[in-house]
């Protein structure tokens, strides 16, 4: 609570890292319900502009080294849930 929360995600790919690489972070509340996209990356970071994580997600990854991590500013108990990291590096998925 109140401190930055780091959500780590690492990946390996058999294909070279290119501008086609995409990272998607989604979130499902602890109580279940609708999945929500909180962040995506393709060449540049795109934090969500709507929803509960608006203006609170920052990119801390480095795709060149297989890191797709993000950070959440000022986490609250209501942020509790499951976060999913999905990396696609065509043609490797």
How would you describe what is shown here?
- The chain has strands at 5-7, 22-29, 36-42, 44-47, 57-59, 70-72, 81-88.
- It is an all-beta fold and 93 residues long.
- It has a single domain (4-88), classed as Immunoglobulin-like, CATH 2.60.40.10.
- Strand 2 and strand 3 form a beta hairpin.
- Keywords: Disulfide bond, Glycoprotein, Immunoglobulin domain, Membrane, Signal, Transmembrane, Transmembrane helix.
- This is MPZL3 protein.
- Its main location: membrane.
- Residues 1-93 form the Ig-like domain.
Termini separation comes to 34 Å
The CATH topology is Immunoglobulin-like
The CATH class: Mainly Beta
* Architecture per CATH nomenclature, i.e. the level-2 architecture: Sandwich
The average pLDDT score comes to 94
Q: What structural category arises from helix and sheet content?
A: mainly beta
Whole-angstrom Rg: 13 Å
Q: How many distinct helices?
A: 0
Q: Let me know the number of strands.
A: 7
Shape: elongated
CATH homologous superfamily descriptor: Immunoglobulins
Query: How many domains, as an integer?
Result: 1
As residue ranges, the low-confidence spans are none
Strand order of the largest sheet: 4-3-2-7
Largest sheet: 4 strands, antiparallel
How much of the sequence lies in strands comes to: 35-45%
Q: How much helix, percentage-wise, in residues?
A: under 10%
Task: Spell out the helices and strands N to C.
Answer: EEEEEEE
């Amino acid at each position: 609570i109140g401190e930055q929360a780091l959500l780590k995600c690492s990946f390996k790919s058999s294909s070279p890292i290119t501008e086609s690489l995409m990272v998607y972070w989604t979130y499902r509340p602890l109580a279940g319900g609708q999945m929500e996209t909180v962040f995506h990356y393709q060449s540049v970071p795109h934090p969500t502009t709507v929803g509960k994580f608006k203006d609170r997600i920052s990119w801390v990854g480095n795709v060149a080294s297989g890191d797709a991590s993000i950070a959440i500013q000022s986490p609250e108990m209501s942020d509790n849930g499951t976060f999913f990291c999905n990396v696609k590096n065509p043609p490797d998925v």
